[in-house]
Amino acid sequence: MAEKRQHPNILITGTPGTGKTQLATRLAEITKMKHINIGKVAAENECYDGYDEALDCKVLDEDKILSCIEADMAKGNNVVDYHGSDFFDEDWFDIVFCLRAEIEVLNKRLEERGYSEEKIKNNLESEIFQVLLEEARDSYDPEIVHQLSSNTLSDVESNLQRISTWIKSWHSDNDT
Ligand code: ADP
Ligand code: MN
After folding, report:
1. Closest residue to atom 27 of ligand 1, CA basis
2. Domains of the chain
3. Pairing state of beta strands 57-60 and 48-52?
């Protein structure tokens, strides 16, 4: 059994464009948690293993990513930001939030991001069929997986409030 963490780890997942990086950035500012953006870790450490033509994106070298972040994860106090959730160690996370956005809202954000029509279609389908929510529920105890609406700026504020409250309760349950 690994030694108990002094601080929790949070995973923020969801379809690209739902607002993971925005929420994780704000949360890290407020709480002094470390924001681990997996896309950025991959880019900075060249953690790639080919190219997925169908999805129009680089394929991650998952083992390399895991080894880049495992020391931080063991310490706790991280907010991890990634659309996938199935390749992390299950016991790394104390809670998982899956951001959800309405299709029209997401469509607009992905257009603004300059994604191809094909890539937008794939991502909207993924949101409609809640692919990443199911992935999170399959990868972790479904009881720790929560959906958060991420359509408006006031959603961001209420999500920050909710997560901050959860962190406080984690400490009152776990601090000795
Ligand atoms: P992700 O990291 O999930 O791909 P981002 O955090 O990069 O998404 O957000 C995508 C875009 O949508 C950004 O321009 C961001 O400012 C905007 N955005 C994200 N969440 C919200 C929200 N809840 N309300 C309004 N705009 C948002
Ligand atoms: Mn992002």
Report:
1. 19
2. 15-167 (3.40.50.300)
3. antiparallel
Residue 65, amino acid? I
In this structure, are residues 36 and 81 in contact, taking their beta carbons and an 8 Å threshold?
yes
Residues whose CB is less than 8 angstroms from the CB of residue 21 and which lie 6 or more positions away in sequence, other chains included: 37, 81
- What pLDDT, in 10s, does the model give residues 52-94? 887 778 999 999 999 999 999 999 999 999 999 999 999 999 9
Does residue 55 contact residue 65 with C-beta atoms inside 8 Å? no
Atom index in ligand 1 nearest the CA of residue 159 equals 23
Mutation pick for ligand 1 pocket among 18, 21, 22 (CB with most ligand atoms within 8 Å)? 22
User: ipTM > 0.85?
Assistant: yes
Sign of CA dihedral 37, 168, 151, 15: positive
Show the 3-state SS of 115-173.
Answer: CCHHHHHHHHHHHHCCHHHHHHHHHCCHHHEEEEECCCHHHHHHHHHHHHHHHHHHHHH
State which of 38, 80, 109 you would mutate to test the pocket of ligand 1, scoring each by most atoms of that ligand within 8 A of its C-beta: 109
